[in-house]
Structure formats: structure tokens, C-alpha cells
Amino acid sequence: MSISRAELARLTPAELARFAATLELIESDQESGKVGWRCSVEGCKGEPHPGRPGPHARPDQLPPEDDEWDVWMALAGRGWGKTRTGAEWSIEQARTQERGALVGPTAADTRDILVEGESGILACAPATFRPLYEPSKRRLTYPNGAIQMCYSADEPDRLRGPQHHYGWFDELAAWRRLQYAWDMAQLGMRLGEHPRICITTTPRPLPLIKELLKDSLCRTVRGSTYDNLSNLAPTFRRAVVAKYEGTTLGRQELNAEVLDDLPGALLARDVIDRNRVDREPGWALRLVAMDPAGTGLGDETGLIAGGRGMDGDDYLTHDWSAKLTPREAAVRAWDLFEHVSADVLVYEDNFGKGWVKEVLQKVWAERSGEEPVSAPLREIHASHGKQLRAQPVVMRYEQGRVHHVDDLPELEDQYTTWIPEEQPTKSPDRVDAAVHLVSYCMRRFDRGQSEIVSPYGRAIKGRGAHPLMLARQARARREQEGRAS
């Protein structure tokens, strides 16, 4: 960046202030080792070298050189550099295209990862071409006037009207309303001569992913976590790579394999898919199930919400599982409890995890102002092995009696990639929490065949349903018929 004395003298005070701020940003970029994304050195692998002292693009992180593509999909493992790739591509597009779409799984993901993340657009854009971010307007504006709008795949109708020249779609495989959001986003790609989409995602064997892999207008680059290991923190290798390396789930999350149904897996993906629904039922009982983290490296606390519907089937609606301290886990559990207006919180307190009840009661008392013993808690004791505990739940899935409301991608990955014979004593935390939830519903409601006759002469039969639930069903039907009349 150069400017003559004469040009400098003609600047207004406001222009001088902007010029000085830009110089500070340029200096900050240089001090942090930021360099241009593209390197002209032949055979460069993206690692620092003379002339490029900071990390930059590997050849597989650059878009296809040919012009015959509509979609470029980076299907890669965790830590490969997908976010950086998408951010740099989006910045390049903003130099020549007026309107772009940034779409993440949720609004928070779009803000925290695509825009403000460590490898997001604001971090990657050079000082001379850094956009102004206006969170309230969900918009980034570049110095040349180009704009990028932020969207959430959880709200696909927001994509219905706007038009774009290009779009960056991050973690497509984690979109809860995948097909609908994809369709709405595709319909908005109608500006310019050749609208294009960049997808950055870890793989899952979803129909849309498989379709894109076969599409002649989609260029796919595959990569693994190991391609970028030199740029990842040592703690990542210890906490993540070491945990999943050599496992079936690791083949998907680290090696970026698109895994079909695996022999011996707890559940087949098509069983989940064919029973999936897009809305919640009327509830007979709503609950949150918690499986506390063990002592293993990287263990998560499983937190799943759902319950028993008025139709007698079980539904899973939310997965808030995460790696948490005991108190964080208790706070998050009660947050989820309030979020879904649950009736009871079910938890496992085995294997020396005696802190669970105490911490849950303490946090409940702090939040509600009531006595700790009043907390709506139910304890589950796992008296059988993990596989035996899960078998009745798996059978209920196969009978079409358990439904996922929209997508629960990480839970579903664990269901379909955990092979009990490979890890008989170590089941995934999300799966354990889901098993607790469905098992509790089965024990509470399914206690023999019951029949209730309504005043209108119709027999209401429950498939092994609890009388309390059947009474609620009868009352709901009477109220509905009363409103209709």
C-alpha cells in the first residue's frame, strides 16, 4: 500500500483516520504472520517458507482450475482446514461478485465460525479488504461495496427470497432441515452468469451428500485431519485424534470416509431415517436424560431431550451433549429442561459418579429457590451391560416406535458407527443418554395391555401402554371432539 505526500495532504480528517487505522491493521497482520492465501511457488504444500512466513493454502484447498462446475465440496476430516478454505474462497468472491450467502447449521454457528471464528472471514480478510460486520443486520460489507448475508440452515424460509451470486455452506451434513434448506438456498443462486457454491463439511452418508458425489457439476476434494496436523495444537492430537484414531467413527470424522451401514453397528441409518418426523407430537411425558461424563480423555456428558408422545411412541428432539465440568453439566441440563418444558430429568449415577445427584440438586435449588429435594429427578441404575441395556431400545427403533424430530447428526453418527463387539464396555455418551430416555419411558408406560372406553363408545387400545397415558389420550380426544362440535 503506497500513497504520495500530495495524495496524503488532500485527505480529509476522516479519511486520514481511516488510513491510519488501515496501516495499524496491516502492521498487525504482519506481526501475526498473516500472508496471502495463494502461493506461486511450485510444489508448495502450504507450510511457511521464505516469502510466505505464515500458513497458507495447500493445493487441495484451492478451487478447481476448470470452469465447468457449479459446486465445490471440501469433504474433509476435523482440523483439515475447511473453515479457512471456505472463508478465503468467500473473500476472493467478494472482490468480483456483489452478493454472497453464508450459511451455517445455526445462526450462532454462522456468526461464531464463518464470520468471527479463528479461521473465519474477519480473521482471514487482509487489512486492505476487511469487511464491516453488522450483526444486527446479519451482513458483512466490503470496501468495494460487496455484501455477504448470514443465514441459518435452521431457518430455511429466510433463504426463500434473497438472490446471490455465490454461497458458502458450512457443515452441510449437520443441517437439521437439510433438504429443505438446500433447496431454498439453491433457488436463491440466480445472480450473475455462473452462480457457484462452496461446501465445507465433514462427511455423513446422507442422500444429498451421495447425490453431490455423483453430480458431474460438483467437484469434490477429500482430505483427512492428518493433512493439516502440523498446524493443529498438540492438545488437539491428544484430546481428539487419539480418542477416535483407529475407530469406526474416526474413519468418518478424521479420515473423511463416507460410511454406509456397518455390519455390527448398533443401528442402521435407514431405520432412523424411515421413522424421522419433522414436528413434535402431543406429549404424554417430556423429559431430559443425562449420562454424566466418565473419567476418560475427551468424554462428554450426554444430554438428550424427548419423551413419550400421546400416540404411545417415543420421540427425541434435542441433543445438547458436550464436554463439560460437573457444574457446567448440571447448569446445561437444567437449561435444556427449561427449554423444552420437561416434566422430569433422568440421570445415571453409577460407577462412582456420586456427585451427579448432589450437583443437580444444588443447581436446581439455586435456580428455583426451592429445597434441593424437590428437584424433579429420577435416577437410573444400569444393572446390565451397555449392549444389553440398548437392545430393547434398538428393537423399539426397528418397530418404528422411536422417532427423531428433524436431524440429530452427532447422536445418529454414534448410533450407526458404534459396534458393540469392538467396544463392549465403552458406549458413546449420547447413545447412553438416548437409551436412558427411551428406557425410562418404556418402564413408566409399557406395563401390559390396557383398554379404556370413551363416553363416545370408541375403544382406545394401548400397545402395552400405561393407564395414565391412555387416560390422557382419552381426555385429549374428548376435548378435541368437543371443540369440533
Structure explained in plain terms:
The chain is of the alpha/beta class and 485 residues long. It has helices at residues 5-9, 13-32, 82-94, 107-115, 121-124, 178-187, 207-214, 234-244, 248-253, 269-274, 326-339, 355-368, 386-398, 409-417, 429-445, 467-484; strands at 71-76, 99-104, 132-134, 139-141, 147-152, 166-170, 196-201, 218-223, 283-291, 302-309, 314-319, 344-348, 377-380, 402-404, 450-453, 459-462. It has an 8-stranded mixed beta sheet, with helices on both faces. Strands 13-12-9-10-11-14 form a 6-stranded mixed beta sheet. The longest helix has 20 residues, at 13-32. The chain is elongated.
Number of strands: 16
**Could you estimate the helical fraction of the residues in percent?**
25-40%
- Percent of sequence in beta strands: 15-25%
Query: Number of helical runs?
Result: 16
* Strand order in the sheet with the most strands: 3-4-5-2-6-7-1-8
Structural class: alpha/beta
Residue windows where pLDDT falls under 50 for at least 5 positions: 448-466
* First-to-last CA distance: 77 Å
The biggest sheet amounts to:
8 strands, mixed
Question: Per the principal axes of the C-alpha atoms, what is the gross shape?
Answer: elongated
What's the mean pLDDT score?
83
Rounded to an integer in angstroms, the radius of gyration calculated over CA atoms is 26 Å
